[in-house]
Amino acid sequence: MRSHYFFSTVTRTSDLWTVPFKTLKWDRSDWATGDFVVGRVTGKRNRLYRCETKTGRIAEMVRGDLMVGALGQRAATLEGVGDWRAVAEGSELDALTPAGLLGKATSISPFLPDLMRLEYLGHVTRAGNKLGMEDFALPVPHKELDIPVILLIGTSMSAGKTSSGQVIIRALSYLGLDVVAAKLTGAARYRDILKFRDAGASAVFDFVDAGLPSTVCPESRFRQALDLLLSRIAACEADVLVVEAGASPLEPYNGAALVNRLGKLTRFTLLCASDPYAVLGVQTAYGEHMKADLVAGPAANTTAATRLVRELSGHQAMNLLDRNTYPELVGLLKSALQLD
Fold this sequence. Notes:
Elements: E1 5-7, E2 22-24, E3 36-42, E4 50-52, E5 58-60, E6 66-71, E7 73-75, E8 80-83, E9 93-95, E10 101-108, E11 117-126, E12 129-130, E13 149-154, H1 161-174, E14 179-185, H2 191-198, E15 203-206, H3 219-235, E16 240-245, H4 255-261, E17 266-272, H5 276-286, E18 294-296, H6 303-313, H7 326-336
Parallel strand pairs: 1-6, 6-10, 13-16, 13-17, 14-15, 14-16, 17-18
Antiparallel strand pairs: 2-11, 3-6, 3-11, 4-5, 7-8, 8-10, 9-10, 9-11, 11-12
Helix pairs in contact: 1-2, 5-6
């Protein structure tokens, strides 16, 4: 009888659900970032016992369920930190995200329950070789990206980048532009780019398409993945690219490398901030190297907040979830893209 697996988001570029594979225990010294592994759910169930599947749907998990995920690292300021390299021989794995990013939690927010735990059953193998995300990141011909970029950066996770991106994508689509959207740094979740697609993006991408479970990795590896992604995006021949940089450029997700890479193409930078003082923090850290054209997110929830942002940093702030701000946002985007 064939086993039933929950294939998490990090497997979505693979063929694991259509082509048979075997599960074999692998020597700990040969583990690597992006390896596909199978885990059996253990521990006491709570609200984090969930799997974001390859389609983006959320499945509730119970003890005994089998999930296919990938070894990786996470360094979230608000939720948790973990790394597959901290897993000891024969110990359990933690689901660092519902998307199948697996490793060992090393620091967890006191506001979270225990992460979902899984017994390591083995690596996904074929013909005696282990499989990983990079095996399904097919190379593409190099194509230089030469379209304008709208860049979304934040002071932390949960700062409003994805919600703001949806508003901007809708605005650009209503202007008649062909929009491609991407989340190019962060930890694997499919939901963000699916929201971009729902908002009107004709194509969506993230680092999973380039074989990375997260962008907590050496900068050289990130740049290699980024070059692949930008070539795929360029092949779409869209009018404009909306890019979300997950987390903050100051965190170890290679956000600064992304900002530098897109520098000459970036026409408009939206800074989403948790509060007005966080805007000042980013401005102090980066100075003139990261000049935001607009501030949004919780730092712009009220008129008191937008006034304080301007007093502290000199930046204009706008609550993009308020429909009354829509005409002004459209005007800013048209000016940045030099649209009549």
